Amino acid sequence: MTLRQDYFDDPSAWNALVDLLQDTFSIDVSILDQFDGPDPTSMPFGYFDADGRCVANFSAFSMPMIINGRVVKAAGYQSGAVRPEWRKRGLYRDLMQRAFSHTATEGYELDLLLTDKPALYERYGFRILPQHIFVAQTPTLQKSDLSARQLSLEAPDDLRLIRTLLQDRQPASAQFAVVRQMEMFLLNASFNSAIRLTALGDDTVAAWTFDGATFWLLDIVGTTIPSLATIVSALDIQPERIEICFSPDRLDCQVLLEPYDGYTMLMVRGKAAADIVGPLMLSPMAEF
Questions:
Q1: Quick one: average pLDDT of 258-279?
Q2: Domains of the chain listed by start with CATH number
């Protein structure tokens, strides 16, 4: 068995991780190959057997956040998996500690992860960060000067626009939001066919879903953040209920709170964790 790190420049090793995640979680991260490959900030740590199979992995990646108006150097952790026949040998613990040591050396001040097994990470100083859905009243619709155009990740011009705005975006919230994380946005949009990506003019993209009654606003990507009334008017919908899935402090709207009861829990640790003040939610488009 061979320990490898920072191995994404080896196509065979990357494909071996793709297979591990497909076999473990039934997710196909090879979709990232359509978008120039995996996150270049990612630092994977993995064990490989003699046949080149990835039998265990744990990865760290850069996920800069804005917290209470301050940009924070934050790291996310993902792609943690061990093949069944290699479990209970300490491999996962070993890889986690290597990843944690790497981000500590690099000076990250906040660590984040999503998990359905919080007890596994509490021993390493992580704590659960409660999340909330923000329920807004339907705003008074107004005539919109913004043209709304549905985008497709398969259309080169649309993908170019989305990537440009993700690179140059203003964080959707000043309280708690991702500053920049392109790969997870594109991957999450690809995983869920119900997610609509709509250009509002030339400098904003809304990620949203709508079932005819409830409108879920998942993220706003752009150089400016329009108000909720502007967004809903431009999309030309009349929802009975609006759920905002990120901190709405830049949307100029009044909201009520409901606890978010998701499958996974957001956990944090680090010196910047004490600065986080709720209520908040990590955009589903940034989930990892």
A1: 96
A2: 2-108 (3.40.630.30), 133-259 (3.40.630.30)
